[in-house]
Structure formats: C-alpha cells, structure tokens
C-alpha cells in the first residue's frame, strides 16, 4: 500500500502532507478527528468502509462545537475518501483518519478568528486489541473528562490527552486497556471505546450523561442486539463494583471492533471466559463489517465497486 493524503484540496503522497510547527492545532490541540475503518474482504477482493457517512456527520458536529468551519459536504468527503483509498493501492484493512484543524499560524489561546483546514489520510491498520483472548482492563486513575470541562461530543484532539495518559497507565501496569470513570465514579468509556456489560441477565451500557462518546459501533451493536438477538440494551449508569460482578463485558469501537473484556482490576468476569452474548454479537458485527450479511449492506460502502 502506498498511503496518500487529501491535503490543501489535493491528493498527495502521505509524506508531502506537512504542516508548520506554528500550526495552532499542534500548539493547542484545536482539531477534531474521526477514525473510520475500511475492512478488506479477500474473497470478494473488496474494501468495505463501515458507516462512512455517519462518521463524517459526527465530524461535522465535532467541528461545529470547536468552531471549525467545514468546507466540504458529507457527500464530497465520502467521494474523496474512496478516491484516496484507490490512489493508495490499498488491498488490506485500512484506517481512514480525517482531521479538521485550526491551521492558522497564530499564537493565542482561543478558537475564533483562526483559519481552518481539513486533511484526510489513510494508513494500513490491523487488529487493535486481541479479539480472541479478550482484554484485561483496569479502571484508570485518570477520570474521564466531563462535559462541563469540554464539549465531549466533539471528538477533539486535545481531549485525547486524557485517553492517552489512561492507556499508557494501563499498559505500563500490565493491562491491555483502561476504563475511565466519570468524576462521580461511574463507568464511562475505554480510552477509545464504549463499554457494555451483561449484569443480572440485562445488556447494559452507560448513557451519554456519563460523559461517553456516542460511538457508531455502540449504535450498531445496540441495533444488532435488538434486531438479531431480541435483546434490548439498557442505558444506565454502572458502578465499578457492578462491573466487577458482571457476567460478561465487551468494548466497542472502530479500532477495537467488538473486543471481549475478560478481567477488570484483576477480577475475572463470569467464569473468566468470553461470554455467550459477547460471542454472538462479535460474530454478527464482524461478519457485517466484511460484507457477509446482506441485511446490513446499507452500512457499507464498497471502494472498488465489485
Ligand atoms: C472515547 C471513545 N469512546 C468511544 C469510541 C467509539 O466510537 P466509534 O464506535 O464511533 O469508533 C471512541 C472511538 O473513537 C472513543 O475515542
């Protein structure tokens, strides 16, 4: 694969997409991003981009919250992305990273009166967490940023300092992933994932009021649980000890797909093996991502149109 980027309104080789050290976004984190997956189906020789328009719609909302003007429509962004992947000679799993950012070469802590720009790049991207063994997680010493501190529905770059510190703390402590608690101590999000748990026979997940990012994978899994397994997901606050006692748990996210959680803070969940509902949802979700379920083809955009 030869990665390319859409930069300054042109498609260029990735190494040519460069910004100045004075770029406002680099100095103050004033940028928004998306993570979109294109999944390679070797049998069909096709890349299926998962829920691309929904990701660009979220980028529009994020940018609005950060006062970054979008100069492209969702449809234009989708078309550019397809062109970019084709130009990159991509025949493997790919990560698509759009960024809207304060591009002005300006010193000053603010978001108004600063030029904006957009870039999109693509890069090869395999599995993020172990989908088979599952993740051993810790609850992080770093609490999730609250909506009273920053607009957390903006997938803003600066916000990810919180996630990055939590992830590093988890990895350096021997865990695979961090689960962040709200400032009130309820379960919120993984460093880059939403979390679900099976508690007393109910599938539960934290509500938006617990400072989660409203994930596109989360929405897909809630739909699949309801439509395919007849299980309604209950959105409610979850305490840490409830999570310790859960029968099953899993993380959802573009990078993580649907990754089982097998331990939290050294407490084995259920019998310590991947649970039945988790397995069923994981299989459903991953088949859909690869274009193997005709009922959900409307969630996918094929790149090569085969
Ligand atoms: C904090 C956080 N929560 C949840 C998610 C999952 O969102 P999605 O499923 O849209 O990738 C992400 C990933 O972007 C994230 O960074």
Radius of gyration of CA atoms, rounded to a whole number? 19 Å
**Overall domain count:** 2
Most strands sheet: 9 strands, mixed
Give the second-level CATH assignment, the architecture of the largest domain.
Answer: Alpha-Beta Barrel
Q: What's the tally of helices?
A: 7
What share of residues are in beta strands? 25-35%
CATH topology of the largest domain: D-amino Acid Aminotransferase, Chain A, domain 2
Please give the alpha-carbon distance between the first and last residues. 19 Å
What name goes with the CATH superfamily of the largest domain?
Answer: D-amino Acid Aminotransferase, subunit A, domain 2
Poorly predicted runs are: none
Bound ligands, named by name, code or SMILES: pyridoxal-5'-phosphate
Fold and architecture overview:
The chain is globular, with a radius of gyration of 19 Å. The two termini are 19 Å apart. 26% of the residues lie in helices and 28% in strands. The protein is of the alpha+beta class and 306 residues long. The protein has 7 helices and 17 strands. Helix 2 packs across helix 3. It has 2 domains: 4-124, Aminotransferase class 4, branched-chain amino acid transferase, N-terminal domain (D-amino Acid Aminotransferase, Chain A, domain 1, 2-Layer Sandwich), CATH 3.30.470.10; 135-289, D-amino Acid Aminotransferase, subunit A, domain 2 (D-amino Acid Aminotransferase, Chain A, domain 2). The chain has helices spanning 24-28, 52-65, 74-87, 160-172, 216-229, 240-244, 276-289; strands at residues 4-7, 10-13, 31-33, 36-41, 46-50, 94-102, 116-124, 135-139, 177-181, 187-190, 194-199, 202-205, 233-235, 248-253, 257-264, 267-268, 300-302. The structure holds pyridoxal-5'-phosphate. Residues 35, 163, 189, 192-194, 213, 215-218, 252-254 line the site of pyridoxal-5'-phosphate (PLP).
